[in-house]
Structures are given as C-alpha cells and as structure tokens.
UniProtKB/TrEMBL annotation:
Note on domains (UniProt): A pair of annexin repeats may form one binding site for calcium and phospholipid.
UniProt GO molecular function: calcium ion binding; calcium-dependent phospholipid binding; phosphatidylserine binding
Annotated family: Belongs to the annexin family.
Keywords: Annexin, Calcium, Calcium/phospholipid-binding, Repeat
Pfam families hit by this protein: Annexin
PROSITE patterns found in the cross-reference section: ANNEXIN_1, ANNEXIN_2
GO CC annotations, alphabetized: cytoplasm; nucleus; plasma membrane; vesicle membrane
InterPro entries named in the record: Annexin, Annexin_repeat, Annexin_repeat_CS, Annexin_sf
Protein name in UniProt: Annexin
Organism of this sequence: Panagrolaimus davidi
Length: 319
C-alpha cells in the first residue's frame, strides 16, 4: 500500500575510517566546522553512522557522541545526536521524553505508536527497557487512562495483522459492529473500536471504512469526531489517517510543527530524522501538493544556520 521512498540510502562509497577522520578534523581546530559534520553525517545511513562512531573510537580513543556534544549546541546538537541514535533507541527516547516531561505529550505517543510496524514496536520496547530499566507498557499505564490507555496498550503489543488478506463479508460485519458500538447506542462501546482498529491489517481496515460509509451514510472520521473526545479521538483519527495516506499524515504533522508563532523544533527534528530512511521523499512530495510550498522552502523560512542546513540535507537526500 505504501511506496516507501526514503531520502537517505546507504552511501555507495562508504569508508568509516575516512569519515571518522573528516569528523575529527572538523572538530579539532578553533570552532567547529559544522558544514563538514553535515556533509558526513547527513549523507550516511544510520548503520553507517554507527560504524563511523566505532571507527572514531578505535582511531582516536574518544567517544564520538561525547565529542559532538562538547562541540555543538542548541537545535543543531539535538538534531545531530538524534541522527546518531539507532532508530529504536531514538523512538524509545522520544516516547520517554513525551511521558516523563511536564505533562504527557499525547501527540508524540499517538504519532509513534500508530505508525510503527510490529517489528519496530518490539525493538522500541526492548530499547526502552534497556535504557530506562522498566517497560514502555508500564510507563504508558502509569501516565494515561481510560480508552486512550487501552488503545496504546493494544498497539504496544506489536501484534497487528500485517498481511494483506481481505475479506469483504467480514468487513461488512465489522462495519455494522462499529456502527452499533458507536452511533446507535447510548454510551459507546470503546472496546469494539479498540479491537478492530488496533489489530486488523490496513487493507482490511480500508474495506471496513468503505463499508462503514454505506451503513452510516457518512465517513467513519465523522462518527469518531462526533462520538469521541480528547486523546482517544485523536488516536483513532490518527490510525485512520495513517491507513488512508501515511505520507499525508506525516506531511500534516510537519506542517503543524512549523505553523504559527515559533517552530516546534523537537517535533520537526523527530519527524525528519525518523522518516529519512523510511519515506521522507514521499512525505516531501505530498507536502508540496497539500501546502503548495516545498518542505525545503518551509524549513528555510522557519530555521536558520547549520540546523536549517542539516534538516534540508536530509530532505534533499543523498542520491
């Protein structure tokens, strides 16, 4: 269903020792050459960055992350350190920040938990455990409640059907079930929405949404907006947006991170870094269509300096 066009691919003429040397030279003199850091780290894939970090330690007896931290600051530092994290650790870190910060950032929980594959969720859970010494599920339960907690815990199992098998008869039956669980009764049955939207494969859910429209004579989105409130409504709508058009979902999140007064830099960094090796090229294409402005131009108008250049390098890609 998804084309999956990343912007960053493994660099074809990769040499970890040569890259480690370039980074060392960039940080050795008075003042750090940020352009050289961008040239190396924004042109390599994540596994290549891990190899560069290993080579750096062997060649110079120093930890590359520590060196980058001492040389960089502000949003550019956050961006580069994000690039250096293994994706599962990066996501685990983002989830922990969203939960442990002042007030849970529900939007981050929704974004990550609704868009990662089963395998990614299992890796995130293992990384979370290793980094914070307790489980992601434990922290979600401790920090959320009600139907929103239930859907997140369901997604946290990483057990969604990932086949492309579809069954029209079952789709009709499930659409009827959702209709009865929401619009035809006093007090909705949250668990029915949770079971169907949290576990079935995307192709089947697409069919269910079409069938729902026949039954209810309006979209499932309209039903959820009417029947649900707050975080559970946002989570269910996010699942539907991801199923209908994942690139459009992320384009909207990117747009929201840059609109209005002040850029939400943590959101912008997370979105660009986490999608660069998955589907950032698709997202940039949809962004241009939706907002009649290229993603690169949007970043140029909102960000500055090396931070802006690094983000644009990832959007532009390395091929």
């Amino acid at each position: 269903m998804f084309t999956n066009k990343p912007s960053i691919h493994p660099y074809h003429a990769f040499n970890s020792n040569a890259d480690a040397e370039k980074l060392h030279k960039a940080m050795k003199g008075v003042g750090c050459d940020k352009d050289k850091i961008i040239d190396v780290l924004c042109e390599r894939s994540n596994w290549q960055r891990q190899e560069i970090a290993e080579a750096y330690k062997v060649m110079y007896g120093k930890d590359l992350i520590h060196e980058l931290k001492s040389e960089l600051s502000g949003d550019f530092e956050t961006f580069i350190l994000g690039l250096m994290e293994i994706p599962s650790h990066f996501d685990a870190h983002q989830l922990h920040k969203a939960i442990a910060g002042i007030g849970t950032k529900e939007s981050v929980l929704i974004e990550i938990m609704t868009t990662r594959t089963n395998d990614q969720i299992r890796k995130i859970k293992a990384a979370y455990d290793e980094m914070f010494h307790h489980s992601l599920e434990h922290d979600i339960i401790g920090d959320t409640s009600g139907p929103f907690q239930n859907i997140l815990v369901s997604l946290c199992q990483g057990e969604r059907d990932e086949s492309h098998h579809t069954d029209h008869h079952k789709a009709k039956h499930d659409a009827q079930k959702l209709f009865r669980a929401g619009e035809t009764r006093l007090g909705k049955d949250d668990s029915c929405f949770n079971i169907i939207l949290g576990s079935q494969n995307f192709a089947q859910l697409y069919l269910i949404f079409d069938e729902y429209e026949h039954v209810a004579e309006h979209s499932i989105e309209k039903a959820i907006e009417t029947e649900f409130k707050g975080d559970i409504r946002d989570a269910l709508l996010a699942i539907i947006k991801v199923i209908r058009n994942r690139s459009s979902f992320f384009a909207e999140l990117l747009y929201n991170s840059m609109k209005g007064m002040g850029t939400r830099d943590n959101d912008l960094i997370r979105l660009i870094v986490s999608r660069s090796e998955v589907d950032l090229r698709d997202i940039a294409q949809v962004y241009q269509q939706k907002y009649e402005k290229s993603l690169k131009d949007a970043i140029k108008s909102e960000c500055s300096g090396a931070y802006k250049n690094g983000l644009i390098a990832l959007v532009k890609g390395n091929h």
